[in-house]
């Protein structure tokens, strides 16, 4: 048996894939989740200690009890829905920033040395530096989601600089694969189940995205650590596709030929980045490689959603 780790948000899409890999690797795992968007069925309670707790409202002392004995906390719990930020303008602040501060306080109380944080490539806003390296400036935040992640990163950096914790911050692109439950593939398939002949695409379909497979994401979360107290790694695929490319792959995988209806404009919603493509050479130099292409990731996601139609009713 390897050591013990905590995964916040471990019942979610990325978190539950991470938990499975940690268990396969011999770690013992505690999951902390409020099940707001996660699912109990993703966790095997025989192997995992599951604590149902809302980290935003949790007292650091209570969280610290959950953390005792852990060598690392993978902090993935968050509101991961970028698109609907303005419908609930306080949500990103509470779920993504306040929750992170609670995790940091609890780490200190429980003497947890390492925090692994899931940030986002959206922090770069609409940077003109593409592919975007970690050292790129953040010229303008365009979503409440990214703004909350920038703030959370800043607190992690300050805790690391004070020597209170070792922090690994991962800024990743949109992730695809088994247990995927939110994002454009989900939306497109939800529509096509209802109307196989028509597909409404937000924006003009030319938005360029660099989707990554969840297995590649999990491999990085588990293997990359800082040389010192703090490191930031971009994670993404070495390439990009357009949203229309993805729509074509999804339709073909389903054997459909829908008519596309574009809502127009070069972005799908407020805060949608028309071109996201991260420079991942730093993670590559540290030994990480993606194994799945964007098309393979899209197709695997489609196949999983076809086999798991329950999720369309559950969301
Ligand atoms: N999915 C992506 O494409 C993507 C891209 C970049 C970054 N991220 C980040 O990765 C992380 C995981 O994203 P995901 O796609 O798996 O999302 P998800 O919604 O599937 O998982 C989030 C999990 O956190 C739990 N949770 C939310 N708020 C909580 C709270 N206050 N207390 C306890 N549990 C809480 C949810 O129930 C869920 O199980 C998030 O931090 C997200 O911002 C995701």
Give an overview of the whole structure.
The protein is an alpha/beta fold. It folds into two domains: 4-175 and 211-235, NAD(P)-binding Rossmann-like Domain (Rossmann fold), CATH 3.40.50.720; 177-210 and 239-276 and 289-314, UDP-galactose 4-epimerase, domain 1 (Alpha-Beta Complex), CATH 3.90.25.10. The protein has helices at residues 13-24, 60-67, 91-110, 144-161, 184-194, 214-223, 243-254, 281-285, 294-307, 310-314; strands spanning 4-8, 28-33, 48-52, 72-75, 114-120, 166-172, 175-176, 198-201, 208-209, 212-213, 230-235, 241-242, 259-262. It has a seven-stranded parallel β-sheet, with helices on both faces. Strand 4, helix 3 (91-110) and strand 5 (114-120) form a beta-alpha-beta unit. The longest helix has 20 residues, at 91-110. It is globular, with a radius of gyration of 19 Å. It starts with a strand and ends with a helix. The mean pLDDT is 95. Nicotinamide-adenine-dinucleotide binds next to helix 1, strand 2, helix 3 and strand 5.
């Amino acid at each position: 048996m390897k050591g013990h780790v905590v995964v916040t948000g471990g019942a979610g899409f990325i978190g539950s894939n991470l938990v499975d890999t940690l268990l396969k690797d011999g770690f013992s795992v505690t999951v902390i989740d409020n099940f707001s968007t996660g699912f109990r069925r993703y966790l095997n309670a025989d192997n995992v200690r599951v604590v149902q707790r809302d980290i935003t409202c949790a007292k650091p002392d209570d969280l610290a009890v959950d953390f005792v004995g852990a060598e690392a906390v993978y902090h993935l719990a968050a509101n991961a829905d970028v698109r609907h930020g303005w419908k609930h303008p306080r949500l990103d602040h509470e779920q993504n920033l306040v929750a992170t501060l609670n995790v940091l306080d609890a780490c200190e109380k429980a003497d947890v040395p390492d925090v692994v944080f899931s940030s986002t490539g959206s922090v770069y806003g609409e940077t003109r530096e593409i592919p975007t390296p970690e050292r790129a400036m953040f010229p303008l935040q365009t979503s409440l989601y990214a703004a909350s992640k920038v703030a959370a990163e800043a607190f992690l950096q300050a805790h690391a600089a004070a020597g209170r914790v070792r922090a690994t911050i991962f800024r990743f692109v949109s992730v695809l694969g088994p247990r995927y439950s939110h994002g454009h593939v989900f939306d497109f398939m939800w529509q096509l189940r209802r109307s196989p002949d028509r597909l409404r695409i937000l924006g003009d379909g030319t938005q360029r995205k660099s989707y990554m497979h969840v297995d590649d994401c999990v491999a990085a979360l588990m293997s990359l650590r800082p040389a010192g107290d703090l490191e930031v790694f971009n994670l993404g695929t070495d390439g990009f596709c357009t949203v229309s490319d993805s729509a074509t792959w999804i339709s073909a995988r389903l054997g459909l030929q829908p008519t596309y209806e574009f809502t127009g404009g070069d972005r799908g919603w407020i805060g949608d980045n028309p071109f996201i493509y991260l420079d991942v050479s730093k993670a590559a130099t540290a030994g990480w490689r993606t194994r799945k292409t964007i098309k393979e990731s899209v197709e695997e996601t489609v196949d999983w959603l076809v086999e798991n139609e329950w999720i369309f009713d559950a969301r």
